[in-house]
Amino acid sequence: MASLSCFRTLALGACNMFHKGSRPLVLCGPSGSGKSTLLKKLFEEFPDTFGYSVSHTTRSPRPGEEDGKHYHFTTKDKMQKQIEQDEFLETATFSGNMYGTSKRAVEEVQKAGKICVLDVEVQGVKQIKQSSLDPLYIFIKAPSIEELEKRLRARKTETEDALQRRLSIARLEIEYELF
Ligand SMILES: Nc1ncnc2c1ncn2[C@@H]1O[C@H](COP(=O)(O)OP(=O)(O)OP(=O)(O)O)[C@@H](O)[C@H]1O
């Protein structure tokens, strides 16, 4: 995959050039652009260099998902309180569930001596830009909306409704260059 070597070079190069301490990387791009695919390969290839921050969510765990590993599973009340206490870098609501990245989740990766990588939606990017995190941003560009649709259909993870929702958000993100 050509884009993987570009991404690898960019991620490592950016960290070598700018990195003092452990400056996080924020990865963003439309649904289907390949963020998870690239991250999976990056973590496989450099397990000691990069670490993923564990997000919070108020949705129920799916079979096989472990608390603290895949997500920090929490309640709306608890998460709301933590947001009020300024413990989150970014939060979003999707399909009635809250999601977010806590400051502590990033610090835990940094304490382990790794560069923290965050995979966030456009709303999250806007919030992170207002925070003190000061990360490096990597935008994964989509080849075309048609290609995104083809990839998301082939991934077979979405219902038709969810797929259409993702595509209309992607279309707006691309048209208005929201990133
Ligand atoms: N460069 C590529 N060329 C072709 N197919 C790809 C490429 N990158 C990823 N894919 C495929 O496209 C689908 C979407 O990729 P992926 O899940 O990584 O996207 P994503 O950006 O993380 O999406 P989301 O934001 O919805 O989680 C996957 O089935 C993946 O195998």
UniProtKB/TrEMBL annotation:
Residues 22-179 form the Guanylate kinase-like domain. GO terms for molecular function: ATP binding; GMP kinase activity. PANTHER family: GUANYLATE KINASE, GUANYLATE KINASE-RELATED. It comes from Bombus bifarius. Belongs to the guanylate kinase family. Keywords: ATP-binding, Kinase, Nucleotide-binding, Transferase. GO terms for cellular component: cytosol. The keyword Flavoprotein does not apply. This is guanylate kinase.
